[in-house]
Amino acid sequence: ERDLMWKMLIMFMTSNYTVVQWPPVLDPLHPGESVTLQCSIISVFDKATCSEDLSVFWFRAESNKSHPNIIYTHGNTHDECENRSEAQKRCVYRFSKNVSSSDAGTYYCAVDICGEILFGNGTALKLETLPRTASTLKLKAEILLFVSGLFICLIADKFGLSN
């Protein structure tokens, strides 16, 4: 396991490409809300030695499963590319979806380019268990109970009904 980590680190350090995934963490979402994840591939022109045909894969790793599931692939297409300088190019790939109750997990992009597979750092997606309206109603009920109890205590104290 340690040897594999070293090999991956050396591959990352010697690669002509860098993969950056954003955002790293999302605020908890409710089912039905939309989310967009972004994967950027940055290449260094003077070090690149092959054509830049690449494939981008998105997959989700659930905390209770040992193997991640591929959920989406970009073929040989670029969502958005730009030359950042004379020696650097960045291509951005986006993955959007409406969240369902079973979508919690860590989402990763993986890029297959020039015989290398480079991974993004992952985005953690957490879900709220209560729908927004139910959590709001619960909070309002708790506040109402607290205020009612406080009011009863004040009335009891005013009329000498407390011990």
UniProtKB/TrEMBL annotation:
Q: Which Pfam families match?
A: V-set
Q: Which InterPro entries match?
A: Ig-like_dom, Ig-like_dom_sf, Ig-like_fold, Ig_sub, Ig_V-set
- From which domain of life does this come? Eukaryota
Domain named Ig-like is located at: 32-111
Which CDD domains does this entry report, sorted A to Z?
A: IgV (cd00099)
What Gene3D superfamilies does the database record attribute to this sequence?
Immunoglobulins
- What protein name applies here? Ig-like domain-containing protein
Organism this protein belongs to: Haplochromis burtoni
Tell me the organism's taxonomic lineage.
Eukaryota, Metazoa, Chordata, Craniata, Vertebrata
